[in-house]
């Protein structure tokens, strides 16, 4: 089996092979359309050299994309902050904080992609458009290509297209790539039109430099060549982008071949190694959690899920701990952020000055960058807990206390997210819980309470809040998945007063109190949590 580091390398090599196929087809079609008789003749030395430089430009673009692509969005350090941190290190001799170095690497990677796109556009457009057919020769064509690269690089970075987005349903590679063809063509038309106008304005400002080379008689034909060449270039880049997304977000099976000796002895070892040893927030780390979620939820690899419930229970504990780790991290950071916001708000309560929306969002913006990972973990651990009712022959899930840990973590994380969204999560009287208004939306308040309270009012239409609502829905669905499976046991435990003993941990939860978690669990058991 390939190591974790070889997974990304092998996929990138496969991406380069498939990219060369569609780029070669586009290059041949472009040269055939612009040929005098409409037939692609035998290649000359100049054509072969143009073909080689065209693929080298695509290799430069692909390498730039490879170095910045990541499934996790990370904010970069602004240039002035980077310069200040560098000067502070030079004059004080102190090492910069780890977060500054990480964000500096992100900024340098994005800046490198921007320059790589500009240089790739210059080389590719010169390779596509014959210099003898264009006014100004290679200089004008290269400047046009530089403008195409600048426009595409700005758009690519502004839209955060370098972040890998995993599909909801894993389909075959060819089917997924086929679905992207129409959108790639439409996006290439828009980008090539914008880049054509920008490069034309750039040439207009520098027309004195190329005045002697412009041939007015062939102006219309030259502009057609420029636009068709720019469209071909943008189409190659768009297809490369979609192909890169499709190949790198495909599920990877972290398991030995079925029927081998390793599959009979310890089939979960590769998956556990990838979960524990891979770099956090890296592509192999995400692929490992995706594979874990597919194993826990689907009935495709039932033999792998059955290996989780081995007799010693160590594998099941490691899998549950790996799933709860991102959720615990999210809940802890939310509690810390909420408590710090309450402290600052309480200090300003006499002046009735609340933090602005931008200040609040800046403090919480990085907490939901791992929303995809948290969604996988939540659904994986909920599905595995629900499956344990019939597939756990040794009772490991119940005897090890994993069921209580799972429910407590999911409830704590849900309460923290709902508090962030402005939902009232304090303890209610029994009479208040009888109706559907047991938990109401609260307005922003400056009153200090025992725990972290709401500092963010109800607000929609903002990406930060959209991610929070999505996480809350996933957590709520995951809890209902467990409750619906163990509903009879929970009802019996609630009547006997044992619900807290069986499904809530004995120590202090991540957020709130044991009483608050028990009250929330009663709402789920009664199917009134919303």
Secondary-structure content class: mainly alpha
Radius of gyration: 29 Å
| Helix content class | 55-70%
* Number of DSSP helical runs: 21
Name some characteristics of this structure.
single chain; 530 residues; mainly alpha; 21 helices; 67% helix
Descriptive notes:
- It is a single chain.
- With 530 residues, the protein is mainly alpha-helical.
- The chain has helices spanning 4-34, 45-68, 79-92, 98-128, 137-158, 173-179, 181-205, 219-248, 261-265, 269-277, 283-297, 302-308, 314-347, 357-364, 371-391, 396-399, 402-421, 463-485, 487-496, 499-503, 514-525.
- α10 packs across α11 (283-297), α13 (314-347) crosses α15 (371-391) and α15 (371-391) runs antiparallel to α17.
Which SSEs are present, and which pair or pack?
Layout: H1 4-34, H2 45-68, H3 79-92, H4 98-128, H5 137-158, H6 173-179, H7 181-205, H8 219-248, H9 261-265, H10 269-277, H11 283-297, H12 302-308, H13 314-347, H14 357-364, H15 371-391, H16 396-399, H17 402-421, H18 463-485, H19 487-496, H20 499-503, H21 514-525
Helix pairs in contact: 1-2, 1-8, 2-4, 2-8, 4-5, 4-8, 5-7, 7-8, 10-11, 11-15, 13-15, 13-17, 15-17, 15-18, 17-18
Briefly, what is this?
With 530 residues, this protein is mainly α. It is built from 21 helices and no strands. The two termini are 45 Å apart.
């Amino acid at each position: 089996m390939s190591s974790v580091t070889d997974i990304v390398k092998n996929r990138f090599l496969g991406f380069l092979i498939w990219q060369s196929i569609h780029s070669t087809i586009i290059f041949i079609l472009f040269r055939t359309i612009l040929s005098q008789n409409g037939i692609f003749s035998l290649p000359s030395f100049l054509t072969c050299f143009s073909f080689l430089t065209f693929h080298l430009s695509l290799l430069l673009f692909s390498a730039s994309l490879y170095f910045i692509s990541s499934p996790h969005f990370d904010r970069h350090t602004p240039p002035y902050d980077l310069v200040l941190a560098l000067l502070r290190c030079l004059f004080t001799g102190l090492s910069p904080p780890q977060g500054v170095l990480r964000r500096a690497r992100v900024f340098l990677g994005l800046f490198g992609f921007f320059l790589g796109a500009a240089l790739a556009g210059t080389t590719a457009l010169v390779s596509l458009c014959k210099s003898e057919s264009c006014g100004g020769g290679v200089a004008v064509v290269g400047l046009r290509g530089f403008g195409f690269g600048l426009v595409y690089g700005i758009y690519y970075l502004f839209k955060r297209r370098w972040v890998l987005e995993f599909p909801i349903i894993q389909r075959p590679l060819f089917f997924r790539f086929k679905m992207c063809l129409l959108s790639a063509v439409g996006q290439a038309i828009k980008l090539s039109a914008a880049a054509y106008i920008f490069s034309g304005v750039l040439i207009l400002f520098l027309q004195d430099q190329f005045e002697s080379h412009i041939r007015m008689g062939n102006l219309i034909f030259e502009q057609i060549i420029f636009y068709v060449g720019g469209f071909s270039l943008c189409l190659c880049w768009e297809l490369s982008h979609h192909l890169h997304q499709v190949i790198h977000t495909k599920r990877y099976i972290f398991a030995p071949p079925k029927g081998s000796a390793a599959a009979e002895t310890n089939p979960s070892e590769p998956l556990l190694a990838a979960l524990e040893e891979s770099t956090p927030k890296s592509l192999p780390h995400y692929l490992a959690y995706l594979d874990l979620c597919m194993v826990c939820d689907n009935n495709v690899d039932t033999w792998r899920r059955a290996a989780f419930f081995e007799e010693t229970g160590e594998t099941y504990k490691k899998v549950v701990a790996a799933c709860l780790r991102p959720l615990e991290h999210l809940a802890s950071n939310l509690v810390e952020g909420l408590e710090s916001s309450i402290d600052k708000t309480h200090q300003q309560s006499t002046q009735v000055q609340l933090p602005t929306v931008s200040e609040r969002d800046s403090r919480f913006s990085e907490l939901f960058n791992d929303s995809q990972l948290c969604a996988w973990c939540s659904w994986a651990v909920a599905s595995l807990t629900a499956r344990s009712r019939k597939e756990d022959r040794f009772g490991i899930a119940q005897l090890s206390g994993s069921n209580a840990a799972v429910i407590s973590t999911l409830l704590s994380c849900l309460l923290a997210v709902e508090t962030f969204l402005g939902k009232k999560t304090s303890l209610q009287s029994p009479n208040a819980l009888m109706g559907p208004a047991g938990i109401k939306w609260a307005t922003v308040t400056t009153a200090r309470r025992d725990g972290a309270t709401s500092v963010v009012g109800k607000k929609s239409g903002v990406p930060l809040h959209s991610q929070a609502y999505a996480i809350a829905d996933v957590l709520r669905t995951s809890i209902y998945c467990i409750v619906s499976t163990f509903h009879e046991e929970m009802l019996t435990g609630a009547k006997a007063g044992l619900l807290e003993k069986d499904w809530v941990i004995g120590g202090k939860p991540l957020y709130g109190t044991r009483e608050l978690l028990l009250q929330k669990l009663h709402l789920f058991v009664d199917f009134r949590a919303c």
